Every structure is written in structure tokens, then in C-alpha cells.
């Protein structure tokens, strides 16, 4: 039994020598079957804790496949973030390669995302997933298969990114250095050196093995367009591919259904992949708040270079509880004694600039007040959750 990687949890037991995988771990029940691997719920015999076991059969892996699994282990073992499933150990014997993973008791996100409110989507999904993506992208890693099935939910209802089977590393992807507060002084050369040799990631393969990535319904337009034009997919691979996938997931959670299913496809095209590849913009439902619409408009920019990075989206007003409302919000009345803080719309993406006479033309305002406002006479819908008031046109 060869130990490829071990966390501190199992370091002592595994370094002491292990003759077989079953000496330390046992399978409780299967979770999912794939072409070359089995994912199951397991138990550590030493600690009694539940774990997830991912078992690859070597006979079903060619040399490139085995290298891909080793890259998965290298990349996953470098991640240290509560919003990323922990890799606890990786081992191999003559027949199998094993990954021992943190167990998510509440399953995957798909079981928890039916028509979420905006505030729940921000708290449960957007903040933690942007945190995870920001770390991944800062280290030069692109997940390439972000979807509800690969986002797991812990016992305490925290989401975690899982499954790095398609993840890739490339030193040229350094966009998240820009806007990353702790690294704002890094030059491009510094970023390249940091990203290409973060931790022990130098051993991971680069982009020559890219192939088609992920699940089509969550794949970014630039990647699908390469496929339709018979161009190498790695020409379009970029951290912002993951940002697109995040935008689709968030919109799906708010709608209660996937926005690009055949019936919901913007152009009504039967080939949904073709539709996504040739989109100019993504239609958004009218009932969303202006802040939510702006966030999704940014995340779902169909042009890669116009799409913000995960690190940039972390500072979006929607996440800060700043809700954009029209200029005539001056007419609102408060039902509580809490003071109302009105912030000029400069912090709201998408607001229009000043007009020639110096007045703000069609500008919006943001508020972070803890009060509840009466919009009854103005035909607006109001929702108050956790001392945050969301207001938008009905």
C-alpha cells in the first residue's frame, strides 16, 4: 500500500505502515457509479468517523487517466478552505487508487436549491462559493465542472466545492491576482511564479490534456463555441469559466429551474449547447432585485474579458446587503426608529453616470438600513430578513 497523500488526521496511522486499504477503512454504502470509479460512504475503523471514499480501478485507467487522477490528488490536497471538501488521504495498491474525503451529511446542492430567496442564495451559495473560487483561481486552478452535483452540503448546512477530477492548473491564469487584496502589489511575473509553483502543484499537468470540460448546461459560452468551431478547448480555458458556472447555479437557485433547459432556452432552440454558445446576453426575471440582476448580469457576461473574476465579485453590493433602489426612494417612510443610511449609487454596478449638468442621470441608491419601509403607495414589494431590507419594483 502506497501513501500518496495524508492529512494530519491520518498521518501517524498511515506512516506506521498499512498492508491494505481495508485495514483502516470500510465501505458502508455506495453513492454513485462512474465509468472508472465508485464513490461511496465509508467509515474509518480507527476513529469511527464517516468519510466519503472515491475508488478508481486502475485497469480502467490508461496512462493519461492515471496521471489525471494524480493531478486531481495534487490539486485537491493543496486546498485549505472550509468551503472546499477536505481531502483526508490518498492511497494506492496494485489494483486501485483511493481518495478519502470529508463526508457531507446533507448530500449535494441539488436537493436544497428549489426557488431560494435572494438572501438565502447569498448566504448559502454566493459568498462561500466565491470564497472557494477565489482561492482556487489565485492558486492557478480552474475547477472546470462546477455544478450543483459537485457542491456538497455539510451537517451544519455549509456548502463545499467537491470533485476536482477535471480541475486543471496553468501558470498563465493569473487574473485573480488583480483585485486580490492581499496580493495587490504583485507584478505579473510575481503572480506567474506564485501560481505555477503554489505548494506542491508544480507536478500537476498543464493544459495539453484539456479536452471538453464539465457538464454542458453549466459550461461557459467561450468553451462551447470552441467545440462548435472545432478549435482546441484549451484556447478558451480560464478561471472565469467557473464564474459563468456559478452565475448559472445562482440563477437556477433563484428560479427553481435551470435557465437553459429546452423550454426555458432564450431562443427556444432545441440545441441548448448551441444556444448558450451564441448568446449575446442572458435574460433575467423581472422579480429579482436590481442588485441581484446586476450581479447575475456581471457573472453571466457572455464575453470572457468582460466577465469579472471571483475575487472582484466578492465586493459586489448584493453580497454586502446593499440593495439598489430607484432615486425616488426619498419618498419612503420607515416603520422603525432605526436611522436610514442612504449610500450614493457609485457602489452599484451598472448605474448611469452623471449628466452634463452635473446631476446624476437615472441613478440609483443603495441602503443598508435595518428598518422596514412602507412602499404600499408606491407599488413596491418589501421583504425583511435578518435585519436586511430588500426593495425592488414589482
UniProtKB/TrEMBL annotation:
- Sites binding ATP sit at 54, 102-104, 163
InterPro entries (alphabetical): Aur-like (IPR030616), Kinase-like_dom_sf (IPR011009), Prot_kinase_dom (IPR000719), Ser/Thr_kinase_AS (IPR008271)
Describe the location of the Protein kinase domain by residue ranges.
10-319
Give GO MF terms, alphabetically.
ATP binding; protein serine/threonine kinase activity
Which SMART domains does the record cross-reference, listed alphabetically? S_TKc (SM00220)
Residues in cross-link Glycyl lysine isopeptide (Lys-Gly) (interchain with G-Cter in SUMO2): 147
Which residues constitute the catalytic centre?
145 (proton acceptor)
> PANTHER family annotated for this entry?
SERINE/THREONINE-PROTEIN KINASE IAL-RELATED
- Protein name in the entry: Protein kinase domain-containing protein
User: To which species is this protein native?
Assistant: Chlamydomonas eustigma
